[in-house]
Amino acid sequence: MCGITGYIGYRNAYPIIIKGLQRLEYRGYDSAGILLYNDNEDALISKTKGKVSDLEELMNSGISKEGNIGFGHTRWATHGVPNDVNSHPHTSNSGNLVIIHNGIIENYDSIKKELTKRGYTFKSDTDTEVLINLIEEVKKTNNCKLGKAIQIALNEVIGAYAITVFDKEKPDELVVARLGSPIAIGIGKENKEFFIASDASPFIEYTKNAIYLEDGEMAIIRKDKEIEIRKINDDSIITPEIQQLKMNLEQIEKGGYDHFMLKEIYEQPHAITDTYRGRLIANKGIIRMAGIDDNMEKFLNADRIIIVACGTSWHAGLVAEYLFEDLARIPVEVEYASEFRYRNPIINDNDVVIAISQSGETADTLAAIKLAKEKGAFVFGICNVVGSSIAREAHAGAYTHAGPEIGVASTKAFTTQITLLSLIALKLGKKKGNLSNAKYHNYLQELELIPKKVESLLAIDEKVKHIASVYKDATNCLYLGRGFNFPVALEGALKLKEISYIHAEGYPAAEMKHGPIALIDENMPIFVIATNKGHYEKVVSNIQEIKARKGKIIAIVTEGDTTVKEIADHIIEIPDTEEAFTPLLTTIPFQLLSYHIAVMLNRNVDQPRNLAKAVTVE
Ligand code: M6R
Catalytic: 2? Predict the structure, then answer.
């Protein structure tokens, strides 16, 4: 949940680290810090509560920015409130060892007590300061090198980590290690420089060659030398696989938009096309997906599909439940990964588990698939981030190819996940003989048209902005939908909550009368999805029930609708499509609405309070 980045080489490290931290700020943004080592001036640590911009301001107040070794951290607090002292880097008692850390050391308390008995003192409330002192103690008692001390110490630790450690006694070396939190190492020309980061975005303009450390691996990185990678729990040396990065700089910049979230909303026509590119050949009736084709028997023989995910990805999983059951007639259960992993679930050999995750790093989802694998299930991963932990842990999988999503609020991740899940459901539905040729072809052609329909739908932005201005001061909102669009109601409410901080609830429209209807009065905006297929008449009745209680109705309808127009206070029209694909369209106005309300309320759209993009702690 924190971002870490580092540099060792011949360039000035400061601009690389500070720019890297800005790119990683989506991972955490309650404090930031940096270490710079300069042969002449020793190792300088600067850190502060606040954002990377606050760190920059601090650095501009006369602090030396010299040095070609260093690292930086942007924090999402776990142990200890966000303040200057709890900010990373943390230093050992001797002052020699310095660490940045992403993750949680679960047994930090017992280690701290033991170290305290041995005379160690602690300035901060963090688990990280405990870890660096444990490393120091091990180094001292074993009289060993830093790498060995880290290895021994990490074997005493329970939890998750990605760490980078610097030793003033050996200043031409950085040691990194990972378990449960990601680390990428960028390799510069002729091993003359190395970059370290939680993802590759900080070094993409310097090198396209990267090594992703696997869980349980550590690397010793020295100036002008080959990287040495070894296992943490034994001494085996690993030959690293160097990956060629496909990401480019443009993808991780705002490109003229005020916020990443808005850019990502507008990228959806492209992103959806990229998801089905090479997979969907509509005019030939072909859906080609290696991960599914190679494991077709597993899917066809599945007693049920269990989907595990969190947040928005869980909402995409709920849409998939409707898709798989309707199109492929396979029973589906959708589980919050955080619940699934701890409730001793019944999993059989014939179950297929699908894990959905934009980042591919969500700790609960990762733990859920590890459990499912242990119990014998076949695990299929749907991720956006290439090479991510979930992508690597799954038996097989498919990438959404949405491109980097940087805004904390998921937008294009959601629509591309649904696109991919639609392809899978259609492929299985056809293979199982549940879809006639005509129906199947119609679905394929309709899916191919979705990007154009999203494109035309984005033209409603001004209208949505107006609606946002009317309801921006609401304190509570209700989102209603039925069938395929019930999960969209949940997603709409989540989007509003997370970036505007307005309380919102999503409900299946018919459930309203079992409780939430009591909330309705003339101050309550209710966003209802009332598209022309599925349960249209039923939703119209629900809208009448709201009207009778003077609630404000903002309805999403299909182009040309006249019935709801008569009753609603505002309508937003979406192009007609197959019911199964309506979530790909109905979600767009909700994304825009939350965006505009958040901007009008002066919220930090891309980095909402208390949140982080990749939740790598449980
Ligand atoms: O990376 P993942 O898809 O696994 O992330 C899951 C959730 O943390 C994520 O969807 C979160 O709910 C977003 N902030 C929603 O906009």
Answer: yes
* Mean of pLDDT values over 140-156: 96
Q: How far is the CA of 102 from the centre of ligand 1 (A)?
A: 18
574-606 per-residue burial string, b: 16 or more CB within 10 A, e: under 16: bbbbbbbbbbbbbbbbbbbbbbbbbbeeebebb
Task: Kindly state the average pLDDT of the residues 257-272.
Answer: 95
Question: Domain map of the chain by residue range?
Answer: 3-102+161-251, 254-455, 460-609
Report the alpha-carbon distance of residue 203 to residue 195 in Å, rounded. 6
In a mutational test of the pocket of ligand 1, which residue from 29, 308, 338, 362 has the highest number of ligand atoms less than 8 Å from its CB? 362
In the reported structure, the alpha carbon of residue 36 is separated from the centroid of ligand 1 by a whole-number distance in angstroms of 33
Which of 357, 314, 313, 307 minimizes the C-alpha distance to 333? Answer: 307
Fold designation for 3-102+161-251? Glutamine Phosphoribosylpyrophosphate, subunit 1, domain 1 (3.60.20)
Question: Residue 383 catalytic?
Answer: no
Q: Do 3-102+161-251 and 254-455 come out as alike in CATH topology?
A: no
Residue whose CA is closest, atom 12 of ligand 1? 311
Write the pLDDT tens digit of every residue in 571-580. 999 999 999 9
Residue 226 backbone phi and psi in degrees, to 5: -65, 145
Type of residue found at 560: G
Q: Which of 198, 131, 192 is nearest to 361 (CA)?
A: 198
pLDDT in tens, 279-336: 999 999 999 999 999 999 999 999 999 999 999 999 999 999 999 999 999 999 999 9
CATH architecture of 254-455: 3-Layer(aba) Sandwich (3.40)
pLDDT bin (cut points 50, 70, 90) of residue 385 is confident
The preferred substitution site among 259, 265, 313 for testing ligand 1, maximizing ligand atoms within 8 Å of CB, is 313
pLDDT at 141: 97
Topology annotation, domain 460-609 = Rossmann fold (3.40.50)
Three-state DSSP class for residue 559: coil
Ligand 1 binding residues, C-beta < 6 A: 310-313, 357-359, 362, 365, 408-410, 494, 498, 611, 614-615
pLDDT confidence of residue 564: 95
Question: Residue 270 C-alpha to ligand 1 middle, in angstroms?
Answer: 21
Q: For the segment 542-584, what is each residue's pLDDT rounded down to a tens digit?
A: 999 999 999 999 999 999 999 999 999 999 999 999 999 999 9
Q: 373 CB contacts (<8 Å, ≥6 apart)?
A: 379, 393, 395
